[in-house]
Design goal:
Strand order of the largest sheet: 4-5-6-7-8-9-10-11
Mean pLDDT: 95
CATH class: Alpha Beta
Number of helices: 12
Number of strands: 15
Order of helices and strands: EEEEHEHEHEHEHEHHEHEEEHEHHEH
Bound molecules: guanosine-5'-monophosphate
Low-confidence stretches: none
Helix content: 25-40%
Strand content: 15-25%
Shape: globular
Structural class: alpha/beta
Protein backbone atom coordinates (compact mmCIF):
# COMPACT_ATOMS: atom_id res chain seq x y z
CA UNK A 1 0.00 0.00 0.00
CA UNK A 2 1.15 3.51 -0.80
CA UNK A 3 -0.20 6.94 -0.02
CA UNK A 4 0.19 9.83 -2.47
CA UNK A 5 -0.08 12.80 -0.15
CA UNK A 6 0.22 15.62 -2.67
CA UNK A 7 -3.04 17.62 -2.56
CA UNK A 8 -5.54 16.78 -5.31
CA UNK A 9 -8.12 19.36 -6.32
CA UNK A 10 -11.67 19.45 -7.58
CA UNK A 11 -13.25 22.43 -9.32
CA UNK A 12 -14.78 23.66 -6.07
CA UNK A 13 -11.41 23.72 -4.29
CA UNK A 14 -10.09 26.62 -6.40
CA UNK A 15 -10.91 29.98 -7.90
CA UNK A 16 -9.12 31.70 -10.78
CA UNK A 17 -7.13 34.76 -9.73
CA UNK A 18 -8.07 37.88 -11.75
CA UNK A 19 -5.24 39.58 -13.63
CA UNK A 20 -4.56 42.94 -15.25
CA UNK A 21 -5.96 42.67 -18.76
CA UNK A 22 -5.73 44.42 -22.10
CA UNK A 23 -9.03 42.92 -23.24
CA UNK A 24 -11.59 45.69 -22.97
CA UNK A 25 -14.62 43.69 -24.02
CA UNK A 26 -15.78 40.09 -24.01
CA UNK A 27 -16.37 40.44 -27.75
CA UNK A 28 -12.58 40.47 -28.21
CA UNK A 29 -12.40 36.83 -27.05
CA UNK A 30 -12.42 34.12 -29.72
CA UNK A 31 -13.77 30.78 -28.46
CA UNK A 32 -13.03 28.88 -31.65
CA UNK A 33 -9.86 26.85 -31.66
CA UNK A 34 -8.08 25.05 -34.47
CA UNK A 35 -6.48 21.66 -33.86
CA UNK A 36 -3.90 19.57 -35.70
CA UNK A 37 -3.85 16.10 -34.22
CA UNK A 38 -0.95 13.70 -33.57
CA UNK A 39 -2.36 10.83 -35.69
CA UNK A 40 -5.40 11.99 -37.67
CA UNK A 41 -4.68 14.08 -40.72
CA UNK A 42 -7.87 16.16 -40.29
CA UNK A 43 -7.70 19.66 -38.94
CA UNK A 44 -10.67 20.71 -36.81
CA UNK A 45 -11.90 24.18 -36.01
CA UNK A 46 -14.71 24.88 -33.59
CA UNK A 47 -15.63 25.58 -29.98
CA UNK A 48 -14.20 22.60 -28.06
CA UNK A 49 -17.25 21.75 -25.95
CA UNK A 50 -18.91 18.33 -26.32
CA UNK A 51 -22.29 16.93 -25.25
CA UNK A 52 -21.80 13.53 -23.57
CA UNK A 53 -22.70 10.29 -25.37
CA UNK A 54 -25.52 9.56 -22.94
CA UNK A 55 -29.08 8.59 -23.90
CA UNK A 56 -30.43 12.01 -22.96
CA UNK A 57 -27.67 14.26 -24.32
CA UNK A 58 -25.88 12.44 -27.16
CA UNK A 59 -28.78 12.82 -29.56
CA UNK A 60 -29.59 14.28 -32.95
CA UNK A 61 -31.93 16.89 -31.39
CA UNK A 62 -29.08 18.10 -29.14
CA UNK A 63 -26.74 18.14 -32.17
CA UNK A 64 -29.24 20.34 -34.03
CA UNK A 65 -28.76 23.06 -31.40
CA UNK A 66 -25.08 22.65 -30.51
CA UNK A 67 -23.76 22.45 -34.06
CA UNK A 68 -25.18 25.94 -34.69
CA UNK A 69 -22.68 27.36 -32.22
CA UNK A 70 -19.86 25.13 -33.54
CA UNK A 71 -19.84 22.81 -30.53
CA UNK A 72 -19.84 19.01 -30.74
CA UNK A 73 -22.27 16.23 -29.86
CA UNK A 74 -20.98 12.75 -29.10
CA UNK A 75 -23.85 10.52 -30.20
CA UNK A 76 -24.88 7.76 -27.82
CA UNK A 77 -23.90 4.32 -29.14
CA UNK A 78 -27.51 3.15 -29.39
CA UNK A 79 -28.26 5.46 -32.33
CA UNK A 80 -28.61 3.05 -35.23
CA UNK A 81 -27.36 3.31 -38.77
CA UNK A 82 -31.01 3.72 -39.85
CA UNK A 83 -31.39 6.72 -37.49
CA UNK A 84 -28.21 8.30 -38.86
CA UNK A 85 -29.44 7.80 -42.42
CA UNK A 86 -32.57 9.87 -41.77
CA UNK A 87 -30.59 13.09 -41.24
CA UNK A 88 -27.78 15.06 -42.86
CA UNK A 89 -25.19 15.96 -40.23
CA UNK A 90 -22.08 18.11 -40.50
CA UNK A 91 -19.17 15.61 -40.18
CA UNK A 92 -17.16 18.09 -38.09
CA UNK A 93 -19.68 18.51 -35.29
CA UNK A 94 -20.67 15.05 -34.15
CA UNK A 95 -18.89 11.92 -32.99
CA UNK A 96 -19.84 8.29 -33.45
CA UNK A 97 -19.24 6.47 -30.17
CA UNK A 98 -18.48 2.82 -29.59
CA UNK A 99 -17.71 0.26 -26.91
CA UNK A 100 -14.93 -2.29 -27.36
CA UNK A 101 -16.63 -5.63 -28.09
CA UNK A 102 -16.33 -7.39 -31.46
CA UNK A 103 -19.99 -6.56 -32.11
CA UNK A 104 -19.27 -2.89 -31.34
CA UNK A 105 -16.39 -2.95 -33.86
CA UNK A 106 -18.57 -4.45 -36.59
CA UNK A 107 -21.28 -1.88 -35.86
CA UNK A 108 -18.73 0.95 -35.96
CA UNK A 109 -17.46 -0.20 -39.36
CA UNK A 110 -20.95 -0.40 -40.82
CA UNK A 111 -21.87 3.08 -39.50
CA UNK A 112 -18.63 4.72 -40.63
CA UNK A 113 -18.97 3.16 -44.09
CA UNK A 114 -22.25 4.97 -44.67
CA UNK A 115 -22.19 8.02 -42.43
CA UNK A 116 -19.84 10.90 -43.14
CA UNK A 117 -18.24 11.67 -39.77
CA UNK A 118 -14.73 12.85 -38.89
CA UNK A 119 -14.78 11.75 -35.24
CA UNK A 120 -14.84 8.41 -33.40
CA UNK A 121 -15.16 8.18 -29.62
CA UNK A 122 -14.13 4.89 -27.99
CA UNK A 123 -15.74 4.96 -24.61
CA UNK A 124 -15.57 2.60 -21.65
CA UNK A 125 -15.91 3.30 -17.93
CA UNK A 126 -12.50 1.84 -17.05
CA UNK A 127 -9.89 2.77 -19.64
CA UNK A 128 -7.17 0.95 -17.70
CA UNK A 129 -7.93 -2.52 -19.01
CA UNK A 130 -5.26 -3.71 -21.43
CA UNK A 131 -7.66 -4.83 -24.19
CA UNK A 132 -8.81 -1.19 -24.41
CA UNK A 133 -5.49 0.01 -25.84
CA UNK A 134 -5.47 -2.92 -28.31
CA UNK A 135 -8.97 -1.97 -29.43
CA UNK A 136 -7.93 1.68 -29.94
CA UNK A 137 -5.06 0.54 -32.13
CA UNK A 138 -7.41 -1.71 -34.13
CA UNK A 139 -9.74 1.26 -34.73
CA UNK A 140 -6.78 3.43 -35.77
CA UNK A 141 -5.65 0.79 -38.29
CA UNK A 142 -9.16 0.62 -39.73
CA UNK A 143 -9.63 4.41 -39.78
CA UNK A 144 -6.17 5.97 -40.19
CA UNK A 145 -7.47 9.51 -40.75
CA UNK A 146 -10.35 9.85 -38.31
CA UNK A 147 -9.98 11.93 -35.16
CA UNK A 148 -10.06 9.32 -32.39
CA UNK A 149 -11.09 10.19 -28.85
CA UNK A 150 -10.75 7.47 -26.20
CA UNK A 151 -11.28 7.11 -22.47
CA UNK A 152 -11.83 7.28 -19.61
CA UNK A 153 -8.66 7.43 -17.57
CA UNK A 154 -7.40 9.93 -15.01
CA UNK A 155 -3.62 9.54 -14.70
CA UNK A 156 -0.64 10.35 -16.86
CA UNK A 157 0.74 6.89 -17.62
CA UNK A 158 -2.47 5.78 -19.35
CA UNK A 159 -2.67 9.03 -21.31
CA UNK A 160 0.79 8.36 -22.68
CA UNK A 161 -0.03 4.71 -23.39
CA UNK A 162 -3.22 5.62 -25.27
CA UNK A 163 -1.58 8.31 -27.41
CA UNK A 164 1.67 6.46 -28.15
CA UNK A 165 0.60 2.82 -28.38
CA UNK A 166 -3.15 3.20 -28.94
CA UNK A 167 -2.61 6.00 -31.53
CA UNK A 168 -5.44 8.04 -30.07
CA UNK A 169 -5.64 11.80 -30.74
CA UNK A 170 -7.62 12.95 -27.71
CA UNK A 171 -7.77 11.11 -24.36
CA UNK A 172 -10.93 11.49 -22.32
CA UNK A 173 -10.28 12.19 -18.65
CA UNK A 174 -12.56 11.49 -15.69
CA UNK A 175 -12.95 8.58 -13.29
CA UNK A 176 -15.90 9.24 -11.04
CA UNK A 177 -16.69 12.97 -11.39
CA UNK A 178 -19.96 12.64 -13.38
CA UNK A 179 -23.19 14.02 -11.92
CA UNK A 180 -24.98 10.69 -12.50
CA UNK A 181 -21.99 8.57 -11.51
CA UNK A 182 -21.63 6.49 -8.36
CA UNK A 183 -18.23 4.90 -9.07
CA UNK A 184 -16.54 6.67 -6.17
CA UNK A 185 -19.25 5.51 -3.79
CA UNK A 186 -19.42 1.94 -5.11
CA UNK A 187 -15.69 1.31 -5.55
CA UNK A 188 -13.74 3.98 -3.68
CA UNK A 189 -11.86 4.63 -6.94
CA UNK A 190 -11.44 8.07 -8.51
CA UNK A 191 -9.34 11.19 -8.93
CA UNK A 192 -10.42 14.77 -8.19
CA UNK A 193 -11.21 16.11 -11.63
CA UNK A 194 -9.21 19.34 -11.77
CA UNK A 195 -6.00 17.61 -10.68
CA UNK A 196 -6.69 14.79 -13.15
CA UNK A 197 -7.02 17.38 -15.93
CA UNK A 198 -3.82 19.19 -14.91
CA UNK A 199 -1.77 15.98 -14.72
CA UNK A 200 -3.17 14.44 -17.90
CA UNK A 201 -2.90 17.64 -19.95
CA UNK A 202 0.77 17.84 -19.04
CA UNK A 203 1.27 14.23 -20.13
CA UNK A 204 -0.65 14.59 -23.41
CA UNK A 205 0.80 17.94 -24.45
CA UNK A 206 4.33 16.65 -23.89
CA UNK A 207 3.80 14.14 -26.72
CA UNK A 208 1.64 16.25 -29.05
CA UNK A 209 -1.73 14.86 -27.96
CA UNK A 210 -4.82 16.39 -26.41
CA UNK A 211 -7.25 15.72 -23.58
CA UNK A 212 -10.97 16.10 -23.03
CA UNK A 213 -12.09 16.76 -19.44
CA UNK A 214 -15.23 14.67 -18.98
CA UNK A 215 -17.63 15.07 -16.08
CA UNK A 216 -18.09 17.16 -12.97
CA UNK A 217 -18.89 20.50 -14.59
CA UNK A 218 -21.76 22.11 -12.69
CA UNK A 219 -21.59 25.75 -13.90
CA UNK A 220 -19.77 27.92 -16.47
CA UNK A 221 -17.08 28.71 -13.85
CA UNK A 222 -16.20 24.99 -13.60
CA UNK A 223 -15.78 24.91 -17.37
CA UNK A 224 -13.43 27.91 -17.24
CA UNK A 225 -11.42 26.09 -14.54
CA UNK A 226 -11.23 22.95 -16.73
CA UNK A 227 -9.84 24.93 -19.66
CA UNK A 228 -7.58 26.92 -17.32
CA UNK A 229 -6.22 23.63 -15.98
CA UNK A 230 -5.25 22.53 -19.49
CA UNK A 231 -8.27 20.70 -20.92
CA UNK A 232 -8.33 21.03 -24.72
CA UNK A 233 -11.97 19.89 -24.90
CA UNK A 234 -14.63 19.56 -22.22
CA UNK A 235 -17.53 17.09 -22.21
CA UNK A 236 -20.74 17.67 -20.26
CA UNK A 237 -23.80 15.54 -19.56
CA UNK A 238 -25.97 16.84 -16.74
CA UNK A 239 -25.61 20.48 -17.69
CA UNK A 240 -26.92 19.72 -21.19
CA UNK A 241 -29.89 17.75 -19.78
CA UNK A 242 -33.38 18.95 -18.77
CA UNK A 243 -34.21 20.97 -21.90
CA UNK A 244 -36.98 20.86 -24.49
CA UNK A 245 -34.55 19.17 -26.88
CA UNK A 246 -33.58 16.33 -24.52
CA UNK A 247 -35.59 13.14 -24.94
CA UNK A 248 -37.93 12.08 -22.14
CA UNK A 249 -41.21 13.46 -20.98
CA UNK A 250 -41.57 16.60 -18.88
CA UNK A 251 -42.79 15.63 -15.39
CA UNK A 252 -44.07 17.71 -12.52
CA UNK A 253 -43.81 17.33 -8.73
CA UNK A 254 -45.19 20.02 -6.36
CA UNK A 255 -45.42 22.49 -9.22
CA UNK A 256 -41.76 21.99 -10.20
CA UNK A 257 -41.03 20.67 -13.67
CA UNK A 258 -38.19 18.26 -14.33
CA UNK A 259 -36.83 15.70 -16.77
CA UNK A 260 -35.05 12.44 -16.04
CA UNK A 261 -31.29 12.16 -16.56
CA UNK A 262 -29.54 8.89 -15.81
CA UNK A 263 -26.06 7.38 -15.80
CA UNK A 264 -25.29 5.01 -18.64
CA UNK A 265 -24.43 2.23 -16.21
CA UNK A 266 -27.43 2.85 -13.96
CA UNK A 267 -30.04 0.09 -13.51
CA UNK A 268 -32.38 2.30 -15.51
CA UNK A 269 -30.08 2.42 -18.57
CA UNK A 270 -29.15 -1.27 -18.30
CA UNK A 271 -32.79 -2.33 -18.23
CA UNK A 272 -33.63 -0.03 -21.12
CA UNK A 273 -30.86 -1.31 -23.39
CA UNK A 274 -30.12 -4.85 -22.25
CA UNK A 275 -33.28 -5.94 -20.47
CA UNK A 276 -31.46 -6.49 -17.18
CA UNK A 277 -28.17 -5.84 -15.38
CA UNK A 278 -25.57 -8.63 -15.78
CA UNK A 279 -25.30 -10.51 -12.46
CA UNK A 280 -21.54 -10.00 -12.00
CA UNK A 281 -21.79 -6.21 -12.18
CA UNK A 282 -23.58 -3.66 -10.08
CA UNK A 283 -24.94 -0.27 -11.07
CA UNK A 284 -22.42 2.59 -11.05
CA UNK A 285 -24.88 5.24 -12.11
CA UNK A 286 -27.91 6.98 -10.70
CA UNK A 287 -31.14 8.49 -11.97
CA UNK A 288 -31.52 12.23 -11.38
CA UNK A 289 -34.46 14.58 -11.69
CA UNK A 290 -32.97 17.55 -13.55
CA UNK A 291 -34.96 20.79 -13.17
CA UNK A 292 -36.58 21.80 -16.46
CA UNK A 293 -34.41 24.49 -18.09
CA UNK A 294 -36.30 25.47 -21.26
CA UNK A 295 -34.31 25.85 -24.48
CA UNK A 296 -30.87 24.29 -24.83
CA UNK A 297 -29.60 27.25 -26.85
CA UNK A 298 -29.99 29.49 -23.76
CA UNK A 299 -27.85 27.13 -21.68
CA UNK A 300 -25.04 26.84 -24.21
CA UNK A 301 -25.03 30.61 -24.80
CA UNK A 302 -24.79 31.14 -21.03
CA UNK A 303 -21.76 28.83 -20.94
CA UNK A 304 -20.10 30.60 -23.86
CA UNK A 305 -20.72 34.00 -22.24
CA UNK A 306 -19.22 32.78 -18.93
CA UNK A 307 -16.18 31.48 -20.76
CA UNK A 308 -15.66 34.77 -22.61
CA UNK A 309 -15.95 36.66 -19.35
CA UNK A 310 -13.44 34.36 -17.62
CA UNK A 311 -11.01 35.01 -20.49
CA UNK A 312 -11.32 38.79 -20.09
CA UNK A 313 -10.61 38.48 -16.32
CA UNK A 314 -7.29 36.72 -16.99
CA UNK A 315 -6.22 38.40 -20.26
CA UNK A 316 -6.67 35.29 -22.43
CA UNK A 317 -7.64 36.15 -26.01
CA UNK A 318 -8.68 32.58 -26.73
CA UNK A 319 -9.21 29.23 -25.03
CA UNK A 320 -5.74 28.03 -26.01
CA UNK A 321 -4.20 30.86 -23.95
CA UNK A 322 -6.22 30.08 -20.83
CA UNK A 323 -3.75 27.70 -19.09
CA UNK A 324 -0.82 30.11 -19.38
CA UNK A 325 -3.01 32.96 -18.09
CA UNK A 326 -4.50 30.95 -15.21
CA UNK A 327 -3.37 31.06 -11.59
CA UNK A 328 -5.57 29.03 -9.29
CA UNK A 329 -6.02 30.06 -5.69
CA UNK A 330 -6.97 27.32 -3.27
CA UNK A 331 -10.08 28.34 -1.38
CA UNK A 332 -11.09 27.36 2.12
CA UNK A 333 -13.19 24.27 1.62
CA UNK A 334 -15.45 25.01 4.58
CA UNK A 335 -16.35 28.44 3.24
CA UNK A 336 -16.57 27.16 -0.30
CA UNK A 337 -20.28 26.56 -0.29
CA UNK A 338 -20.95 30.23 0.45
CA UNK A 339 -18.60 31.71 -2.12
CA UNK A 340 -18.44 29.44 -5.13
CA UNK A 341 -21.21 29.59 -7.80
P1 LIG B 1 -21.61 15.22 -16.01
O1 LIG B 1 -21.33 16.28 -17.03
O2 LIG B 1 -23.04 14.84 -15.96
O3 LIG B 1 -21.05 15.58 -14.65
O4 LIG B 1 -20.77 13.94 -16.45
C1 LIG B 1 -20.98 13.30 -17.69
C2 LIG B 1 -20.09 12.08 -17.76
O5 LIG B 1 -20.41 11.13 -16.73
C3 LIG B 1 -20.23 11.25 -19.02
O6 LIG B 1 -19.61 11.83 -20.13
C4 LIG B 1 -19.59 9.92 -18.59
O7 LIG B 1 -18.18 9.96 -18.69
C5 LIG B 1 -19.96 9.84 -17.12
N1 LIG B 1 -21.06 8.88 -16.90
C6 LIG B 1 -22.25 8.80 -17.55
N2 LIG B 1 -23.02 7.81 -17.06
C7 LIG B 1 -22.30 7.23 -16.07
C8 LIG B 1 -22.55 6.13 -15.19
O8 LIG B 1 -23.61 5.50 -15.16
N3 LIG B 1 -21.52 5.81 -14.32
C9 LIG B 1 -20.34 6.48 -14.32
N4 LIG B 1 -19.37 6.09 -13.47
N5 LIG B 1 -20.09 7.55 -15.11
C10 LIG B 1 -21.06 7.91 -15.98
Amino acid sequence: MKIDNTPKLDFNNVLIRPKRTTLNSRSEVNLEREFKFPHSTYKWKGVPIVAANMDTTGTISVYNVLSNVKTLTCMNKFISLEDFKTVKLNPDFFMVSTGISDANFENLKSVMREVDCNWICIDIANGYISSFVDFCLKVREEFPNKIIVAGNVATREMVEELIIRGKVDVVKIGIGPGSACTTRLKTGVGMPQLSAIIECADAAHGIGGFIMGDGGITCPGDMAKAFGGGADFVMMGGQFAGHDENPGELREIDGKKYKLFYGMSSDHAMKKHYGEMAKYRGSEGRVLKVPYKGKLIDTILDYLAGLRSACTYINAKCIKHMPKCTTFVIVNQQLNKYFVK
